[in-house]
Amino acid sequence: MFQRIPSITTTELEKLDRPVIIDVRETHEYKGGHIPKAKNVPLGQIAAFSSTEPVYVICASGMRSKRAAKILRKNGVEVTNVRGGMMAWQGLVKGGIK
């Protein structure tokens, strides 16, 4: 019944080849700086999101993305949480300053 949500570090995420990244922060946070090619789907809208591809969810610290991952998994999406969120991200950032 209970299944643990898989998670990876930001370093592991950065090494992946073209992952589908969903940033679940609010729009103003996303505009302040996000991973290039990450799609913004705020947590409040995540239940309507669907994907046939595996997705990686990220937020500011990893807490909202963990909640989003549980919702997505319940909806049949193969999902992995990114531990540490954007606070741990050391890679390229689009918009804002990091």
Automatic annotation (TrEMBL):
Pfam families referenced in this protein's UniProt entry, alphabetically: Rhodanese (PF00581)
CDD domains on file: RHOD
InterPro entries, A to Z: GlpE_sulfurtransferase, Rhodanese-like_dom, Rhodanese-like_dom_sf
Domain Rhodanese: 15-98
Superkingdom per UniProt: Bacteria
SUPFAM superfamilies in the record: Rhodanese/Cell cycle control phosphatase
Gene3D superfamilies: Rhodanese-like domain (3.40.250.10)
Matches recorded under PANTHER family: FAD-DEPENDENT OXIDOREDUCTASE, SULFURTRANSFERASE YTWF-RELATED
Protein name as catalogued: Rhodanese-like domain-containing protein
